[in-house]
Amino acid sequence: MSVVSRLLRARPITSNTLRTLSSSYSTSPPLSSRENDVTPPSPSFKHPTDGRNVQWVFLGCPGVGKGTYASRLSKLLNVPHIATGDLVRDELNTKGPLSEQLSEIVNQGKLVSDNLIIDLLSKRLEAGEAKGESGFILDGFPRTIRQAEILEGVTNIDLVINLKLREEALLAKCLGRRTCSQCGGNYNVACIDIKADNERPAMYMPPLLPPSHCASKLITRADDTEEVVKERLRIYNEKSRPVEEFYRKRGKLLEFDLPGGIPESWTKLLQLLNLDDHEDTRSAAA
Ligand code: ADP
């Protein structure tokens, strides 16, 4: 079991203790030396030099597309895409002792407790390690300062990509999300078409429609209703927005404003990261 898994398992330990314990792991400099940084360095993509795979985090509001881009990058970089929302939904589907309590929290748009999410994440990391996985792209974690501190205490995150999309598109994108109940494919039936105004250019995001064999099997997440999405957006601003600042101060935050639909945004993201996706240039479909 790796240091990450062991220490994530030891979640009641304070982040200071974790930092001391994790001396064999590559951690960041102590907090105090960075809190006052005025101009953090611009983050950029570099392969880690210690032989491990990348350890990245995706931040961004519900509906922004973290899952889409994290999953594409994970295939490109050959690292697991670990979405804590998926871990929560898997746990809900087990119908185990926790699931009733969890579904109440998730369906109200609230965050589950830091301890619980860290338990789920450490189990996932441990299972991955047993299969020989190394590195990760985390999606949906950390979502609170406490989670960010714990993560910082146990490992060194290389890069944090903060996806941003205009507020008016986020709700529509959440409400348009669909999943195929058979193959698990993710689609979006929303068509975002925002006209240009004096301040901002037009934005067009076409729907991502399912193939005909999935069309009759589409389901909507129970927490993708208007009321719950608005609450999730509110909670993002309250609890998760400060996590952006946490990483900004450490010079790890790479801001990415989505310019439009997937093909356009993916190409721009790769340019920003200085990466090539040969597969993608062969198949333009998104
Ligand atoms: P979103 O579309 O809001 O980004 P996710 O699929 O990432 O949704 O998460 C679904 C739900 O799972 C969240 O609303 C929350 O209840 C729970 N969850 C996921 N990740 C975390 C986390 N890091 N901390 C607390 N709760 C989480």
Molecular structure report:
With 286 residues, the protein is α/β, with parallel strands linked by helices. 45% of the residues lie in helices and 13% in strands. It contains 13 helices and ten strands. It has helices at 3-9, 15-21, 32-35, 66-77, 84-93, 99-107, 114-130, 145-154, 167-175, 212-215, 226-249, 262-273, 278-282, and strands at 55-59, 81-83, 136-139, 159-164, 177-180, 186-188, 192-194, 203-205, 218-219, 253-257. The strands form three sheets. Strands 2-3-1-4-10 form a five-stranded parallel β-sheet, with helices on both faces. Strands 6-5-9 form a three-stranded antiparallel β-sheet. A two-stranded antiparallel ribbon has the order 7-8. α5 (84-93) packs across α6 (99-107). 32% of the residues are buried. Residues 12-39 and 281-286 have low confidence and may be disordered. The structure holds adenosine-5'-diphosphate (ADP). It catalyses: AMP + ATP = 2 ADP. It comes from Ambrosia artemisiifolia (Common ragweed). Pfam families: ADK. Residues 19-33 have a biased composition (Low complexity). Monomer.
Observed structural traits:
single chain, 286 residues, alpha/beta, five-stranded parallel beta sheet, three-stranded antiparallel beta sheet, globular, disordered C terminus, binds adenosine-5'-diphosphate
